[in-house]
Design brief:
BAR_dom; mainly alpha; AH/BAR_dom_sf
Length: 149
């Protein structure tokens, strides 16, 4: 998603540069006037000026539509980035926490397996602690699964 956002931002920057250049061309076209050599403009010169002016207006309208598209694209990008930071960020943090919990639980099981059964008081205490940790681990496992659904 980061790469997608980066590429879309690059497109937005290029689009703004294109828009600026198009607006400049549109203004030039709208204000184009022939230098009259004689006393009057010919009909052909008037038609060319009119056509160029119309083309400038069309380009101007295109840029207005591009502005609306850019505004909606920027809103979309903000929402996409917000989603990436909040939802995906939370899931990554939860996964890290779950990995640590899993590691602690596995270590506890290994340590419990090493306790000699001859010391019943120590063994019973460790077994009770393990049962409590097993319950906690199962709850965290279900919480972790809930994130991905």
């Amino acid at each position: 998603i980061k790469t997608l956002i980066k590429k879309l931002n690059e497109v937005m920057v290029a689009n703004k540069t294109l828009s600026k250049a198009s607006r400049s061309v549109a203004e030039t076209l709208k204000s184009f006037k022939f230098f009259v050599v004689g006393s009057k403009q010919t009909e052909e010169e008037r038609d060319i000026e009119s056509s160029l002016s119309y083309m400038g207006e069309v380009l101007h309208r295109i840029e207005e539509a591009r502005d609306a598209l850019n505004a909606s694209s920027e809103t979309y990008l903000k929402k996409l980035d917000e989603f990436r930071k909040t939802t995906i960020g939370k899931a990554k943090n939860k996964k890290k926490e779950f990995d640590k919990t899993t590691q602690r639980y596995c270590t506890m099981i290994e340590n419990n397996a090493k306790i000699p059964t001859k010391r019943s008081d120590l063994f019973q205490e460790a077994d009770a602690n393990l049962q409590m940790q097993t319950k906690k681990f199962r709850e965290e496992t279900l919480d972790n699964l809930y994130i991905y659904t």
